[in-house]
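Known limitations

Structure tokens in this collection are predictions and should be treated as such. Users comparing against experimental data should check residue numbering before alignment. To illustrate the layout, the record for Pectinesterase inhibitor domain-containing protein is reproduced below. The input appears on top and the generated tokens appear beneath it.
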Amino acid sequence: MRTPFIFLICLWLATSLTAAYAEETPSPTNNNENSTDFIRTSCGTTLYPKLCYTSLSRYASAIQQNPAQLALVAMHVTLSKSKHMTTYISNLTRQADYGANPRTISALHDCFSNFGDAVDEINGSVKQMKNLGVGGGGDGQSLRFQLSNVQTWMSAALTDQETCTDGFEDVPECPIKKDVCNKATYVKQHTSNALALINSYAAKVTP
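Generated tokens:
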């Protein structure tokens, strides 16, 4: 007759422990919500917050609430966009060489060169950021120096991308000019956001 009673006691204990564990353990959904809130708030410091949030929120599980990881992911995103833009301009240049306005062709070649430089600079920034480790490693002086390099290279990349669109100012209006400038501007916005997030992180860790 004691067996049912013992079984009920065991069942009650198991249920109580499970409920207590569930209360203490944050759910994946809550973690993800906290991460997306962190990204949304951080993106508020950028010039293009909506673009920042929509492009980075999909990586919330990897970013968590880490500002260094957020900046690094943003850099990876703009690196990918810049590489695609370079490929696009390269293909467009080969097509335009057969009959496009000479000024258009010249602007395309310059734009290709500028975006190629930007890709190299962003790639260098990503490598430098990875060397810091998530959260930043090393002494304060070393951290400031390395973050300064990241900021300098990302700024240079943004300048190169802006030089691309500036080169089309004297080009007659045409579909090529409109398409390249629109796409380049979109990439510039990603780069600007990434730089803003880097600057925000640097301000927190380097007094």
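For this record: Confidence is low (pLDDT under 50) at residues 7-29. The first helix runs from residue 2 to 24. Please report discrepancies through the issue tracker.
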